[in-house]
C-alpha cells in the first residue's frame, strides 16, 4: 500500500480528514485492544523474540530481524513470519531453490538467505514447527499485534523521521493500535535514522516514549565493491519508504536519472520490468533496486538489476541487549 498523505500530518494540526476518520480509528484501535486482551497465547519451549511496530508501512523491521539473527546466532534462531503477499498458508520452511515471492512473500525469501525461515498464517503453528525442526529460539517477524504466541521479548521498531505519523489509528492515521497500549507490552523501542532524524523523533515523541529503553540505529549500505560513485542509476523500489532507498543511493554517489516509487510489496511483472529496462537504456542508466525488491524479481531478470543492500547498525543495545544475553541462560 501507499500511505495516504494525511497519515504524516503534524499531530498538532492533523487536518479535517483525520478528524472525520477518528471515530473509525477509535473502532480499529478498540478491536486491536480487545484482540490483545485475550491472553498471552501459546508458550513455546524456546525463547521467542518479537520484532514489531505500531504503524502500518516501513519501519525497518526487516534489517532489524537480520541484525537480531546475527546477534543470536549461537542460539540457532529460526525466523517465523506470516508470509505477506504469498499464496502458501504454511507452516512451511522457506526454500530459496523451490519457492518464489509469490509463494511465501518477499521478506521471508530474503530472510531465508540468512538462515532457517518459516511462513505461517497461524503464528503459533509456525513457532511449533520451528521448534520441532531444532530451533534454539524464534524471531517472530511482525507479530506484535498477534496474541496467539507468548513472547519473551518484544522490540518495537520505528522510522525516526516518520515517527508515529499523525498519532492516530487506521484509517485516520498509520497506527495499528494506541501508542500507550503498544508501549505497555514492549521491552524496548528502536528508532532508525540519522542524527537529525533521531533528534526530530526526540522532539516530537520523546516524552510519549520515555517509558521504554531506547535504542538508536541507522541503516548502512553494503557497497559490495560496486562503483556506485558516478553511476547513472534508474532506481525503483516497492518498500514502505522508497525515498530512504533513493537517498541512500545518492549518499553513495550514484546519479539518480529516475526514481520509481512503487507500493510496498508491489508485484513486479516482466512487462513492467522490460519497460523500465527500455527507459533506463534510453537514459544510459543502470536499473537498481533494494534487496527486498530483488526477491520479487523473476529469476531470469535478476542479473540485469543491481542491488544495494543495507544493514542495521546499533551502537549500544543497552538494557535490551542484556535481556538478549539472558536468553542464553538455562
Would you kindly provide a written description of the structure presented here, covering whatever features stand out?
This protein has 330 residues and is of the alpha/beta class. The chain is built from 11 helices and 13 strands. It folds into 2 domains: 48-219 and 313-326, Rossmann fold (3-Layer(aba) Sandwich); 232-308. The strands form 2 sheets. Strands 3-4-2-5-1-6-7-8-13 form a 9-stranded mixed β-sheet, with helices on both faces. A 4-stranded parallel β-sheet has the order 10-9-11-12. The protein is globular and about 55 Å long. It starts with 15 loop residues before the first helix and ends with a helix. The model has no long low-confidence stretch (mean pLDDT 91).
Looking at this protein, list some descriptive labels.
alpha/beta; 11 helices; 19% strand; nine-stranded mixed β-sheet; transferase; 13 strands; four-stranded parallel β-sheet; LpxK; Rossmann fold; lipid biosynthesis; 330 residues
Amino acid at each position: 500500500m501507499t500511505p495516504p498523505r494525511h497519515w504524516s500530518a503534524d499531530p498538532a494540526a492533523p487536518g479535517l480528514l483525520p478528524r472525520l476518520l477518528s471515530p473509525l480509528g477509535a473502532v480499529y484501535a478498540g478491536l486491536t485492544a480487545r484482540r490483545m486482551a485475550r491472553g498471552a497465547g501459546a508458550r513455546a519451549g524456546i525463547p521467542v523474540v518479537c520484532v514489531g511496530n505500531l504503524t502500518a508501512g516501513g519501519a525497518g523491521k526487516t534489517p532489524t530481524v537480520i541484525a537480531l539473527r546475527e546477534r543470536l546466532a549461537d542460539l540457532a534462531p529460526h525466523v517465523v513470519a506470516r508470509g505477506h503477499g504469498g499464496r502458501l498458508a504454511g507452516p512451511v520452511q522457506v526454500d530459496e531453490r523451490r519457492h518464489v515471492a509469490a509463494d511465501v512473500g518477499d521478506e521471508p525469501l530474503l530472510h531465508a538467505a540468512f538462515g532457517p525461515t518459516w511462513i505461517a498464517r497461524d503464528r503459533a503453528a509456525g513457532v511449533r514447527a520451528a521448534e520441532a525442526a531444532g530451533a534454539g529460539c524464534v524471531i517472530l517477524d511482525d507479530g506484535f499485534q498477534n496474541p496467539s504466541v507468548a513472547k519473551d521479548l518484544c522490540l518495537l521498531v520505528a522510522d525516526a523521521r516518520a515517527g508515529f505519523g499523525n498519532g492516530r489509528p487506521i484509517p485516520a492515521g498509520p497506527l495499528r493500535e494506541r501508542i500507550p497500549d503498544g508501549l505497555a507490552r514492549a521491552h524496548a523501542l528502536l528508532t532508525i535514522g540519522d542524527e537529525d532524524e533521531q533528534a526530530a523523533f526526540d522532539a516530537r515523541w520523546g516524552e510519549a516514549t520515555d517509558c521504554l529503553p531506547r535504542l538508536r540505529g541507522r541503516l548502512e549500505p553494503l557497497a559490495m565493491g560496486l562503483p556506485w560513485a558516478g553511476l547513472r542509476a534508474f532506481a525503483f523500489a516497492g518498500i514502505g519508504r522508497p525515498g530512504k532507498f533513493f537517498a541512500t543511493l545518492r549518499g553513495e554517489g550514484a546519479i539518480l536519472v529516475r526514481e520509481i516509487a512503487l507500493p510496498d510489496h508491489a508485484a513486479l511483472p516482466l512487462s513492467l520490468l522490460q519497460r523500465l529496462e527500455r527507459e533506463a537504456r534510453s537514459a544510459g542508466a543502470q536499473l537498481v533496486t533494494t534487496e527486498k525488491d530483488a526477491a520479487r524479481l523473476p529469476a531470469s531478470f535478476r542479473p540485469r538489476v543491481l542491488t544495494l543492500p543495507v544493514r542495521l547498525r546499533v551502537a549500544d543495545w543497552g538494557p535490551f541487549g542484556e535481556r538478549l544475553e539472558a536468553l542464553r541462560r538455562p
